[in-house]
Please model this.
Amino acid sequence: MTDQTTWLTQEAFDRLTSELAYLKTEGRQKVSAKIAQAREEGDLSENGGYHAAREEQGHQEARIRQLTAMLENAEVGEAPAGSDEVVPGVSVTIYYDDDADDTDTFLLGSRELVGLDNSVDVEVFSPQSPLGAAILGHKVGDTVTYTAPTGKPIEVTIVEVTPFTS
Model:
């Protein structure tokens, strides 16, 4: 993991802290029990339940590492209100200068702000992404250029900046 600051609302921080506590305690216990039960079934080389439980354990431990790093580097607060500057935690609407009719609105921040239940349908760009890094700190009306992963320069204009609400 990198030491990059992740902006989180207090609600998201609390939700992720609870998830991490669950995974480190009850979650680990449940996976360990599944592994132990599968071991009792005999030959591990052909035991699908054992391999599935070990894979689940690996995913869970990866999530624990991800959450730990994210929470250690979290900046907790509320989305800035009443500003036209692009900062983490805001919804941004841009248009592509080669097609002013084509606008995109997205959250500049972390998918964790939206939650795991995906009840909010919003596109999310990281402040470290090429587009996110290019528009960070700019204001409504600014036109910026960034380099797409394909190497093509893309020019966008910031149309609107609003606080993100889930």
